[in-house]
Specification:
Elements: E1 11-14, H1 18-29, E2 34-38, E3 49-52, H2 54-63, H3 66-70, E4 74-75, E5 79-84, E6 90-94, H4 96-104, E7 109-112, H5 113-121, E8 129-131, E9 135-139, E10 146-149, E11 154-156, E12 159-162, H6 169-175, E13 181-193, H7 199-202, E14 205-211, E15 214-221, E16 226-234, H8 249-255, H9 261-268, E17 274-280, E18 292-294, H10 309-326, H11 331-360, H12 366-377, H13 380-383, H14 385-388, H15 395-403
Parallel strand pairs: 1-2, 1-12, 2-8, 5-14, 12-18
Antiparallel strand pairs: 3-7, 4-7, 5-6, 9-10, 10-11, 13-16, 13-17, 14-15, 15-16
Helix pairs in contact: 1-5, 1-10, 10-11, 11-15
């Protein structure tokens, strides 16, 4: 497994998930050749739904794939709402059809992760993707990084991008194994056929239910054929951090006993739900070492409470491609610039996502009532404008990142 030498930098991307393929697509768009090394035998996304907020939609439009995704996505015309756990009282509601385009120039959608992966992959030459290539080691001590694979082969590259997820082998090679802190929270997830879901869950709305120690989110995906359901609850002694782990419907229902009957009906229809523990990791102060860097969850794993995991990985990809295209003669300096531009923003998102767990899970009482009342005073869509208005190509973003 060798990489052919060219006059351009040889760029290797470890990981063929959403972030890795987005990096390949943006680099290809700027005329740079890459090789993506993916350990699986085929490209696939584990998981279910995600929110395509305006900052992500903007980048998908740049790649020329937004229209293709919209064929299978759901536009959140009716909106975004927060509800009380026991009876569904609406705490806050937003008509996203009017607000998003007016404020941020793009709509908000919900989509299946597999559909997003598919449209991004369409912008990466098939010859650039090597499947069944599991990276087991990285030597970054010399001038030219070298990857080692499980089959005994190796490959050199002028630039290595670790987009290999929360258990990143590239991050471990650069900075050691990142210690994780037990958060005490776990997540359940499921895809429910729309025909079996309550009418409330079939609407084109992202609905967040807030309750003591728990919260639950649902929205339609896959052209409205499925309802994505994800819920957060106390983990007890559960510490498995894997998207392939499962639970039972009975375990899921037990966590939401006494909640609005429409929610328990949705959980009843969930089939075999997934379950994983949320482990906490402190933000990294740097992502790069020489000609090797990190991207997405490998660089900045964050709690999913703002729905920005995929969006931040794709933002990373766009900025990284711009830095490398403009600094191909000095890849190490280009990677340094990339992390300077991205770390302040992703660290802020890691922080606010972390804090949201407490806010969402307040027990009934004075603090909870104050939180609920605050929804009428402050529009969450406007309050989070710093997330949704981001344009990685805007000169203002360069200036803000440079100031830290």
């Amino acid at each position: 497994m060798t990489v052919r030498a060219t006059s351009q930098p040889r760029i290797a991307i470890v990981g063929g998930g959403i972030g890795g393929l987005a990096a390949a697509a943006f680099l290809h768009r700027r005329g740079l050749a890459v090789t993506v090394y993916e350990q699986a035998a085929r490209l696939a996304e584990i998981g279910a739904g995600l929110v395509v907020a305006p900052n992500l939609a903007r980048l998908l439009r740049q790649l020329g794939v937004l229209d293709e995704l919209r064929a299978r996505a759901v536009r959140l015309d009716t909106g975004w709402e927060f509800r009380r756990w026991a009876d569904g009282t609406v705490l806050s509601a937003e008509n996203l059809l009017e607000a998003c385009e007016r404020l941020y120039g793009e709509h908000t959608y919900t989509a299946h992760r597999a559909d997003l992966l598919r449209v991004i992959q369409s912008r990466v030459p098939a010859a650039s993707i090597r499947l069944g290539a599991k990276v087991t080691g990285l030597d970054a001590t010399g001038e030219t990084p070298r990857l080692r694979f499980a089959d005994g082969q190796s490959a050199e590259a002028d630039v290595v991008i670790g987009a290999d997820g929360i258990h990143s082998a590239v991050r471990a090679a650069l900075f050691g194994v990142s210690p994780a802190t037990y958060s005490g929270t776990c997540a359940f997830r499921a895809l429910v056929p729309a025909r079996r879901a309550p009418e409330l869950a079939r609407r084109p709305v992202q609905t967040l239910w807030l309750g003591p120690g728990h919260h639950l989110v649902h929205y339609p995906v896959s052209g409205g054929e499925l309802v994505n359901l994800v819920a957060f609850a106390p983990a007890g002694d559960y510490t498995t951090e894997s998207w392939t782990a499962t639970a039972t419907v009975e375990e899921f229902l037990a966590e939401f006993d006494g909640w609005d009957p429409r929610l328990t009906a949705l959980i009843h229809a969930a089939g075999t739900p997934g379950r994983w523990a949320l482990l906490d990791r402190a933000p990294l102060r740097r992502w790069s070492q020489g000609r090797v860097t990190l991207l997405g969850d490998a660089a900045h794993p964050m709690f999913p409470f703002f729905g920005q995991g995929a969006a931040q990985a794709i933002e990373d990809a766009a900025v990284l491609a711009r830095c490398l295209a403009g600094g191909a003669g000095d890849p190490a300096a280009a990677l340094k610039r990339y992390e300077e531009l991205r770390i302040p923003r992703t660290t802020r998102l890691q922080s606010v996502s972390h804090g949201r767990a407490h806010v969402n899970h307040l027990p009934d009482g004075p603090e909870q009532r104050e939180r609920d009342a605050a929804f009428t005073r402050q529009d969450p869509l406007v309050a989070n404008g710093w997330i949704y208005s981001y344009d990685p190509d805007a000169p203002a973003e360069d200036s803000a990142a440079a100031r830290g």
